[in-house]
Amino acid sequence: MREKIAKAVVLLTVLLLSTLSFIFAFRHNPDAPAEVDLDRAERPVPSPLPPSEPRQIEAESSNAIQILERGRAVYNREGCATCHSIAGVGNPRFPLDGAGDRWKPDELEAWTTAAGFAAELLPPGIVRRKERYRSLPEEDLKALVSNLATLKSEPALPFSNP
Ligand code: HEC
Question: 136 in ligand 1 pocket by Cβ < 6 Å?
Fold first, then answer.
């Protein structure tokens, strides 16, 4: 009888210890962070604005994307890449990477159309070539400038190269 009780006590102790060590291991070893999925990565953006209706947010963001897409189409159609490059694509002589950090939207427009201060700084031949962008449809020019404004020096999402 005594032996049985002693065995039971030992068994219970072992059980208790293994349960405790399991709980300890579980609490102190959170899962390794999953690999960052760039498409899905979400950065919480603190917003001082009151929350919008989900449908409104969807409409606004798809509108913003459409504007950026339109800007890109204008950039490609107008042959900006014959002189400029973005992320290594196009003429490497005058990279536009970081232009959105260097210039405000109205300055980006001035550079694009060789107007105002930009006309003073650009060589006459380039001014003549860029002048024709002044006759772009207003919506096209606006979309182009919105897109240029997104050209930041730092990538939008942090990631490490292998
Ligand atoms: C014939 C060549 C040429 C074409 C075509 C051209 N650009 Fe430029 N652009 C220049 C030159 C040269 C500069 C001055 C670059 C410098 O001094 O670093 C410049 C400057 C700029 C800048 C300011 C650059 C910076 O980051 O400081 C922007 C923005 C710009 N161009 C946008 C455009 C866009 C948009 C188009 C197409 C609609 C375009 N350019 C077409 C030659 C051109």
Answer: no
Distance from Cα 111 to the centre of ligand 1, integer Å: 6
Instruction: Tell me how far the alpha carbon of residue 109 lies from the centroid of ligand 1, in angstroms.
Output: 10
Q: Give 37: exposed, middle or buried? Use CB within 10 Å, 0-12, 13-18, 19+.
A: exposed
The whole-number pLDDT of residue 14 equals 75
Closest CA to 143 of 78, 56, 55, 54: 78
* Residue from 104, 99, 102, 110 nearest 151 by CA: 99
Type of residue at 93: R
Instruction: Please give the average pLDDT of every successive group of 10 residues along the chain, which has 162 residues.
Output: 80 78 70 55 64 83 93 97 95 96 97 97 97 97 97 73 60
Instruction: State residue 16's pLDDT score.
Output: 79
Cβ-Cβ contacts under 8 Å for 101 (sequence gap 6 or more): 151, 152, 153
